[in-house]
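Problem 12. The chain below contains 298 residues. Write out its predicted structure in token notation.
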Amino acid sequence: MNSRTVVITGASSGFGRGTALRLVAQGYNLVLSARRGHLLEQLAHECGNAIAVTTDVADPHDVDKLAKAALAKFNRIDVWINNAGVAAIGRFEDIPLRDHQRVLQTNLGGTINGSHVAMRHFRRRQSGTLINIASMLGRTPSPYYATYCATKYGVLGLSESLRQELRANGARDIHVCTILPMAADTPFYEHAANYTGHSLRPYPITDAEQVIDAIVDTVEIPRDEVTVGLPATAAVLSERLAPWLTRSVTGVMAHQLQMHDAPAASHAKGNLHAPLEIGTGVHGIIRTRMAAEQRAPR
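Solution.
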């Protein structure tokens, strides 16, 4: 039986839920974290060898309590996955400043909070794996995702800086890994705050299972940086070879898809300041909704 313990933030849906279900089947002890405590309790019951800890990762006291709960139950943390994330999508000036701040506090602040408690524990044990879920938007930016991009650039910078510290101090058994997915078919877009005036239209869309595969593989075999899927790999190569052209084309395409091709939609506050009851599975409805919009008469 696998006795390793994994902490997963943002475990109530999407990548977090999918990773939990996959890891528990391999015998890992799980510590599940999110704001939606009732969903965590259900998932912990479904998993069996797991505990649920209601946590707002933007609050360092909550994250500290999460780490203490993990150690009280399992006496060790072997892997910490910073997965929780939110988004506010739209023209930068149309998004309320408090929403921008909340994206920063959750995506970057939450990753820093989780990384801090995890690294302190790993340093004491002289081993461990920190996995930060970043995004291809931390490499190739997109219009209407300004603050989200800023946070993911920050996650990549944080992760690389930590790797440099570990190398400089000879900590060979502590690993810092980043996962870079494209947009994926999870409840993320059901939860995102939408100020575009249009239905959200990300492209391309990766299957959630591909990303979960990458996370689980990294738990087993740590790697510094993992891009998920051929579009992500192509985007990285394109950015390296022709950054100006890549960003120009990406900007034009994203603007056309989101602000011209997408049907009109009301503004939505999303889950920034309070969790939503919708979007509780691994997979979302983004592909189904976009297909239905394509078939609808104009």
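Discussion. The first strand starts at residue 5 and ends at 9. Students who got a different answer should revisit the alignment rule from Section 12.3.
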